[in-house]
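It is worth pausing here to work through a concrete case rather than discussing structure prediction in the abstract. The textbook approach is simple: state the sequence, then state the predicted structure, then interpret. We follow exactly that order.
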Amino acid sequence: MLLSPDALETLRGRLVVSCQAYPGEPMRDPRTTAQVAASAVIGGAAAVRVQGLADVQHTRAAVEVPVIGLWKDGHSGVFITPTLRHALAVANAGSHVVAIDGTRRERPDGLSLAQTVAGIHADSHALAMADCGSFQDAAAAVEAGADLIGTTLSGYSGERPKTPGPDLELLAEIAAAGFGVPLIAEGRIHTPAQARQALDAGAFAVVVGTAITHPATITGWFSDALK
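Step two, the predicted structure:
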C-alpha cells in the first residue's frame, strides 16, 4: 500500500474526486462508492477520496489510482478520522493516504497530531493528510510531520468564515509560506472555473466532491434555479 514519492508527484496539478454519500441516502453503499470512484477515474481523476472502511476496501479493488481514505465518527468537533485507532483502521483497509483532522483542537484519544501522524507512519505504509482549517493549522500539521495538508476544514473549525466557494485567500497564504509538502485544495469547489482558481492560488492538487458525486445536492442547485 506504500505510495512512492513518484506516485504522489503524479497528482500535481490534477483532480482528486471525493466519492461520499451521507448515511440514509440511496447511494450509501460501498459497492456504489466503488462504482462512482471508477467512473471518476474514467473521467480523469488522478486519485479518489472515500469515507468508511468498507468503502475503502471496495474502492481499492475497483481503481488503480491512489485512494485517500477517512473515517467520519460523529458530526461535530474532531470527527474526521479522529483518533489513531481510526487512522490505523483506515490504513489497514487499504488506503494509500489517511486523511485525519489536522486542526489544533483536542483529539478524542488525547494524542497530539504529531503522535497520531507518527503512529500512522510507524504502524502502516500509509501517508498522512492533515485536513486543516487555518494557516496556523497548516503550519502545525507540517511541524507534526503530515505528508500532505488540505484546506478541507476552512470555514468549519471556527477560525475562518465559511466562504461561498473555495477559500482562495487561505490557499494563497499557505502556498506563499513554502512549507514543502503538497497543498491540497478542498472544500466548496463547485465549478471547473473554481477548480482552476484553486490551482492558480497555489494548490498542488484539487479535491472536488459534492459537485461531481452528490446527485441530491446537484439536483437541488438546478431545482432552486428554476423556482
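Step three, interpretation. The CA atoms of residues 112 and 215 lie 37 Å apart. The chain has one domain: 12-226.
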